[in-house]
Amino acid sequence: MKALYIASTGMSAQERNVEVISNNIANMRTTGYKRQRAEFEDLLYQQISRAGSTTSDQGTMLPAGLEIGSGVRTVSAPRVMSQGTVNMTERELDVAVRGEGFFMVQLPDGRTGYTRDGSFERSADGMLVTSSGYALEGGINIPADARSVSISADGTVEAFVGNAPEPMQQGQILLARFANKSGLESLGDNLFIETPASGAPQIGVPNADGTGNLLQNYLEMANVNSVTEIADLIAAQRAYEMNSRVISGADEMMQSTTQLR
């Protein structure tokens, strides 16, 4: 009874789908989080009769074949890299990217991480770091006696130091963009790294080179729509139930067969 195994692949695929949806919902308040979407593909088919095969000596052909599929599998869960909502936070070190670019940070193992999370902090030595303590690439240092910090749309970081009336430039934030953003690998901590599928980073100045611009005092929220996720969750649950009913139906058919005399 193949239906048992075919329906089991459907239940397995929907179980994975619910896992993806639950992760989206869990991260709906995570800064810069990009939602994932489970994608499926059908499995191999058993060809019982092939379309176009000859059915008589006069050359008539079978207009449609008979092929039985063996189920479904979850093939990928690409991220939807659409822009998240940008909210005002009134924190001078909060920066949102409005566009395609990613902030670049220095990871402890020497690699470069990429993130949309612009909730920066100052480290003990004045460096601009992420919430997890990773320093921005290029190293931007804010003097200890800085009265305020200004970050412009093109990434220029300036600080008003001491009693000086004019700001002092402290560096510039650069952004990276990728040919295939969905090909980035997630590391956790709101970080991605490049992969052969993502392509090499194209580094540019914000407000130019197609990377997008920066908004100080704002943060990009997750691009998770709670209503859509709940609707997807209900659809996944119903699909799981329907597959379980197929298993029950196939079991009843097998039971009927064993009771034949």
Q: What is this structure's SSE topology?
A:
Layout: H1 2-26, E1 39-42, E2 45-49, E3 66-69, E4 72-76, E5 86-88, E6 95-98, E7 102-106, E8 112-115, E9 121-122, E10 128-129, E11 146-151, E12 156-161, E13 168-172, E14 175-177, E15 185-188, E16 191-193, E17 202-204, E18 213-216, E19 218-220, H2 226-258
Antiparallel strand pairs: 1-4, 2-3, 5-19, 6-18, 7-8, 7-14, 9-10, 11-12, 12-13, 14-17, 15-16
Give keywords.
261 residues, alpha+beta, 4-stranded antiparallel β-sheet, 2 helices, 22% helix
Subunit organisation of the chains: single chain
Give the biggest sheet: 4 strands, antiparallel
Overall, the morphology is: elongated
- Portion in beta strands: 25-35%
Uncertain runs = none
Radius of gyration: 27 Å
Order of strands in the sheet with most strands: 8-7-14-17
What average pLDDT do the residues reach?
92
Q: Which structural class matches the secondary elements?
A: alpha+beta
**Terminal Cα separation, in Å?**
19 Å
What is the H/E order? Answer: HEEEEEEEEEEEEEEEEEEEH
Notes on the protein architecture:
With 261 residues, the protein is α+β, with helices and mostly antiparallel strands. 22% of the residues lie in helices and 29% in strands. It contains two helices and 19 strands. It has helices spanning 2-26, 226-258, and strands at 39-42, 45-49, 66-69, 72-76, 86-88, 95-98, 102-106, 112-115, 121-122, 128-129, 146-151, 156-161, 168-172, 175-177, 185-188, 191-193, 202-204, 213-216, 218-220. The strands form eight sheets. A four-stranded antiparallel beta sheet has the order 8-7-14-17, with no helix packed on it. A three-stranded antiparallel beta sheet has the order 11-12-13, with no helix packed on it. A hairpin with a 5-residue loop joins β7 and β8 (112-115). α1 packs antiparallel against α2 (226-258). The chain is elongated, with a radius of gyration of 27 Å. The two termini are 19 Å apart.
